[in-house]
């Protein structure tokens, strides 16, 4: 009896789950399909789902107009670079907050998060002037610096909540054994913290990859990442659905694939201390 | 250890930052069809000038405008050539932000430029930007639908004639909408059309003392006419349609009449992109009781920011991209109909162009008729046509555009929208120090 | 003993992050504060002068200001409502065993990886477009008049797009929390004859409260500054129906190029954000303590 119910519920949930999954994924799927249509087929009524003349024309067009790989490389360098530097700054800070908290630790954390609430447009001109004077306009270095600072609060907070879950007794034991601070971090803490660090890293690469205000406003030709690449397709003249879809697919595919492959790691540490 | 490894990794990633070579020109441009074509044809330029490399920054119009304006105003120096509109050129030239173009190639022939356009990009007789393509506005309509509905659109229509034709052409069951007009808020979107329309109804933005005039009957008449017409014969979603959206609608055969920039003519008649390529008729911008065809005049131009160290190379490129030889290059590769229009007299005298582009004559007529020094019948303290040539207009025009867009969407009445526009314009003009 | 030393080390370890963040906050903030008292328009160089609180006066008396404030709150609140409720339901479904669960999970998290600009463009042009969009086609298929999304319900349309992007995030966190729920507890409750609904209310929901708090906190930080979605779809309109505070400042900064006005707006936004943060922490911070 019990087994029958389970199978039945399993079938029901399969239907529900797949329906919801399909609906949520549909806009992306639709974009992907449209990217292989001709411009005419892209706006045809009734819409054509699978039976149309598949073409790579849009991808060719997009590639002939802009150097995708340059933008792609910039995106990779900027998002990975800013995340690594952010981690380098955040790991010690989060460790300190988690293992020797003071009365002000919570306040510092909240203050850090509050720096993220400043609207970017409001400080565009001041920052633009600083960047100009320091020669950082249109450099990857400049963007790495900005994105590091933007995401640092989130990184610190994620790591802090994760580190806090690590039982203090283990550290006590290590200290008893006379382990130095450095050893404590490398041999005891790091292995336990790897899942948390991994998912923090992944989340921040995603956030940095998709950041579209600073990356667009502080770059011109050299350091422009994929967000700027998209900005040149957002509303050209005439029919542009198919070309837009192709450009969109190219811009989101790398991060989507990375996200899918690493989703186990991403999810494992993505708890913000919410699980207990 | 871990930290150090991470730092090292990050540092080596950063070491990849590239350095610009001395003869690389960075060109900021808008993603319109003609510019994209230019970008594809640059091999011709780099072959002739192997010492100059080109880097393109192609952006959507609004993003481009905010990027180049921020850069030039803060002297950021990121670009060597900027694509700017006729709105920016005089304002920027007066600030000393643009270099006068006195190093153009010998065969550039400044006198060949259409006088209206040349005046628009010159200050004190000096050329500050070189026009790449120019436009006015006109009526484009479907000859087949007009015939089917039994209406004729004269060469110089009035708004009433347009309205009547639009209503008769509308057949919502087949998704055919009599008229498509811009409705998306923005000073260069719906306000371009509405300011030109208002001009043709005899309205003006400001009186001689810079007091806004939205409380005057002419504006009310113009806006009410527009909203009523669009409600009856316009497509759904009109309040978020700009030039591109309407172009797409017209190309897919969903509009009977479309009143917009003349440059659209070459897109709607291009059989590769348009389903209605062989069915398009043209007429001048309509009039609404006064003898005024809107005075729409616009050009996208290439200018050189004052901060660049590569002025010579920049002017070399500008000469290549905007002289007569470039039009011939485009013609040889893509046909005469795709040549950037609206900048040179010689193009309109060219028999081959006239043959390939049935819209050539009316485009020229519309452009020569546009008078930017006297945009409307009543006296005004400003110049411009579909815009008002003051620095504050981008902000004010867009805010007013939002009000009018709301009136079109039906979330506000015409009177409320005009009151809102009046109040906010008065406020901004007071803040700007125009109204004492 | 060791604690003193540890304290000192802890301080040293924290200092790079804290100092850099402090500089990142304070330098632009001070410059912004300074600019906010100037008449400073990028398009009119040479006219800069001290004008006291005039910029603030104009920003705060802007008829659009309170609407923008309300829109900001509705946008944040609406998106939170959809993502939290939707996220719980979705997590409950994904927590059940079914065929192809792993693949469905991949499908569900996908929107989170999409750039805001791209998702706004896709929704606007390919789904919600009243003539060529897919929704319009579906509506007509069933004989309905297509909805003109961005004219008839502009703010809701934007909430929908933003919620689509953030739903995966909420789902993931809630799902992880759900999976940590003790199986024995669940079984015990079942034995007691508790129905599915009462089990959900008395057992599952309290267990999720911490995760919900986290979702609310993180999302609020990002949602307060939603911008790309508005710029791409409605430009803040029709009228000012979708103008939020960030967009209002954008109008000052990048349309008027009024740096003074935008700076005043930026300072106001910082103050508002801190008020929100204060209440947020008061209201839900307790949940995070422990």
From TrEMBL, chain A:
Belongs to the binding-protein-dependent transport system permease family. The keyword Membrane applies. The chain crosses the membrane at residues 12-33, 76-96, 108-131, 143-163, 184-207, 213-233, 240-261. Keywords: Cell membrane, Membrane, Transmembrane, Transmembrane helix, Transport. Residues 72-262 form the ABC transmembrane type-1 domain. The keyword Transport applies. Gene3D superfamilies: MetI-like. CDD domains: TM_PBP2. Pfam families: BPD_transp_1. One of its GO terms (biological process) is transmembrane transport. GO terms for cellular component: plasma membrane. It is a multi-pass membrane protein. It comes from the Bacteria. This is Sugar ABC transporter permease. Its main location: membrane. InterPro entries: BP-dep_ABC_trans_perm, MetI-like, MetI-like_sf. It is found in: Cell membrane.
From TrEMBL, chain B:
It is found in: Periplasm. InterPro entries: Bact_solute-bd_prot1, SBP. The keyword Signal applies. GO terms for cellular component: periplasmic space. Residues 1-22 form the signal peptide. Transmembrane segments: none annotated. Keywords: Periplasm, Signal. PANTHER family: ARABINOSE-BINDING PROTEIN-RELATED, DIACETYLCHITOBIOSE BINDING PROTEIN DASA. Belongs to the bacterial solute-binding protein 1 family. This is Sugar ABC transporter substrate-binding protein. The lineage of its organism: Bacteria, Pseudomonadati, Pseudomonadota, Alphaproteobacteria, Hyphomicrobiales.
TrEMBL record, chain C:
Its main location: membrane. The keyword Transmembrane helix applies. It is found in: Cell membrane. CDD domains: TM_PBP2 (cd06261). Residues 69-280 form the ABC transmembrane type-1 domain. Keywords: Cell membrane, Membrane, Transmembrane, Transmembrane helix, Transport. Coiled coil: none annotated. This is Sugar ABC transporter permease. It comes from Phyllobacterium myrsinacearum.
């Amino acid at each position: 009896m019990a087994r029958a119910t389970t199978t039945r519920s399993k079938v029901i949930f399969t239907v529900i789950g797949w329906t919801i999954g399909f609906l949520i994924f549909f806009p992306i799927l639709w974009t992907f399909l449209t990217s292989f249509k001709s411009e005419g087929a892209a706006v045809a009524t009734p819409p054509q789902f699978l039976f149309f003349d598949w073409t790579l024309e849009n991808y060719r067009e997009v590639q002939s107009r802009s150097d995708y790989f340059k933008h792609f490389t910039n995106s990779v360098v900027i998002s990975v670079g800013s995340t690594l530097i952010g981690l380098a700054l955040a790991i010690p800070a989060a460790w300190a907050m988690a293992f020797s908290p003071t009365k002000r630790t919570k306040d510092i954390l909240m203050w850090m998060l509050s720096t993220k609430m400043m609207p970017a447009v409001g400080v565009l001109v001041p920052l633009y002037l600083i960047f100009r004077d320091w020669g950082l306009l249109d450099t990857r270095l400049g963007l790495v610096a900005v994105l590091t600072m933007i995401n640092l609060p989130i990184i610190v907070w994620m790591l802090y909540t994760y580190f806090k879950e690590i039982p203090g007794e283990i550290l006590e034991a290590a200290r008893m054994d006379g382990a130095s601070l450095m050893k404590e971090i490398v041999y005891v803490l790091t292995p336990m913290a790897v899942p948390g660090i991994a998912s923090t890293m992944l989340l921040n690469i995603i956030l940095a990859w998709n950041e579209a205000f600073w990356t667009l406003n502080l770059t011109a030709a050299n350091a422009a990442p994929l967000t700027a690449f998209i900005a040149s397709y957002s509303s050209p003249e005439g029919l542009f659905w198919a070309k837009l879809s192709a450009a969109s697919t190219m811009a989101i595919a790398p991060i989507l694939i990375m996200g899918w492959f690493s989703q186990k790691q991403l999810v494992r540490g993505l708890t913000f201390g919410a699980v207990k | 250890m871990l930290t150090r490894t991470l730092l090292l990794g990050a540092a080596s990633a950063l070491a990849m930052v590239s350095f610009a070579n001395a003869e690389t020109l960075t060109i900021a441009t808008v993603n319109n069809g003609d510019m994209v074509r230019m970008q594809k044809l640059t091999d011709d330029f780099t072959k002739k000038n192997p010492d100059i490399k080109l880097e393109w920054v192609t952006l959507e119009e609004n993003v481009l405008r905010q990027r180049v304006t921020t850069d030039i105003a803060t002297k950021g120096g990121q670009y060597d050539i900027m694509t700017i509109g006729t709105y920016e050129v005089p304002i920027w030239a007066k600030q000393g932000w643009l270099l006068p173009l006195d190093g153009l190639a010998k065969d550039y022939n400044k006198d060949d430029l259409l006088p209206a356009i040349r005046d628009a990009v010159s200050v004190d007789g000096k050329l500050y930007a070189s026009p790449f393509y120019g436009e006015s506005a006109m009526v484009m309509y479907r000859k087949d639908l007009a015939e089917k509905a039994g209406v004729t659109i004269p060469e110089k229509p009035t708004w009433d004639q347009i309205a009547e034709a639009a209503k008769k052409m509308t057949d919502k069951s087949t998704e055919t909408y009599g008229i498509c007009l811009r409705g998306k808020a923005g000073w260069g979107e719906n306000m371009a059309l509405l300011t030109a329309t208002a001009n043709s109804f005899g309205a003006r933005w400001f009186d001689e003392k810079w007091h806004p005039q939205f409380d005057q009957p002419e504006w009310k008449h113009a806006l009410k006419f527009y909203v009523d017409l669009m409600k009856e014969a316009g497509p759904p979603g009109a309040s978020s349609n700009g030039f591109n959206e309407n172009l797409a609608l017209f190309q897919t055969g969903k509009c009977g009449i479309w009143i917009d920039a003349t440059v659209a003519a070459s897109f709607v008649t291009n059989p590769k992109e348009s389903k209605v390529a062989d069915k398009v008729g043209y007429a001048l911008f309509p009039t609404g009781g006064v003898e005024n065809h809107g005075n729409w005049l616009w050009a996208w131009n290439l200018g050189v920011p004052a901060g660049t160290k590569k002025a010579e190379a920049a002017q070399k490129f500008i000469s290549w991209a905007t002289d007569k030889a470039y039009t011939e290059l485009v013609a040889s590769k893509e046909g005469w109909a795709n040549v950037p229009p609206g900048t040179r007299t010689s193009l309109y005298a060219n028999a081959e162009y006239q043959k390939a582009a049935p819209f050539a004559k009316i485009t020229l007529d519309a452009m020569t008729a546009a008078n930017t020094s006297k945009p409307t019948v009543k006296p005004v303290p400003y110049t411009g046509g579909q815009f008002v040539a003051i620095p504050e207009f981008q902000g004010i025009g867009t805010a007013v555009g939002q009000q009018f867009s709301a009136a079109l969407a039906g979330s506000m009445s015409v009177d409320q929208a005009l009151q809102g526009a009046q109040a906010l314009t008065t406020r901004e003009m007071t803040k700007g120090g125009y109204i004492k | 003993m060791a604690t003193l030393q540890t304290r000192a080390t802890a301080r040293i370890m924290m200092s790079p992050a804290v100092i850099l963040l402090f500089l990142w906050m304070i330098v632009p903030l001070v410059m912004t504060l300074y600019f906010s008292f100037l008449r400073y328009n990028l398009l009119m160089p040479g006219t800069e002068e001290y004008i006291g609180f005039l910029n603030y006066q104009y920003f705060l008396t802007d008829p659009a200001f309170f609407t923008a404030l309300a829109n900001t709150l509705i946008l944040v609140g609406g998106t939170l409502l959809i993502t939290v409720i939707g996220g719980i339901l979705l997590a409950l479904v994904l927590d059940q065993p079914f065929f192809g669960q792993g693949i469905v999970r991949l499908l569900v998290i996908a929107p989170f990886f999409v750039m805001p600009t791209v998702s706004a463009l896709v929704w606007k042009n390919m789904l919600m477009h009243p003539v060529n969009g897919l929704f319009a086609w579906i509506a007509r298929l069933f004989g309905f008049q297509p909805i003109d999304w961005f004219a008839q319900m502009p703010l809701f349309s934007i909430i929908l797009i933003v919620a689509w992007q953030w739903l995966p995030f909420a789902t993931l966190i809630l799902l992880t929390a759900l999976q940590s729920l003790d199986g024995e507890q669940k079984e015990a409750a079942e034995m007691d004859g508790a129905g599915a609904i009462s089990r959900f209310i008395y057992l599952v929901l309290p267990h999720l409260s911490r995760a919900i708090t986290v979702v609310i906190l993180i999302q609020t930080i990002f949602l307060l500054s939603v911008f790309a979605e508005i710029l791409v779809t409605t430009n803040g309109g029709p009228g000012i129906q979708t103008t939020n505070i960030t967009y209002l400042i954008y109008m000052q900064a990048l349309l008027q190029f009024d740096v003074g006005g935008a700076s005043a707006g930026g300072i106001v936004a910082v103050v508002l954000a801190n008020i929100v943060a204060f209440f947020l922490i008061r209201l839900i911070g307790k949940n995070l303590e422990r």
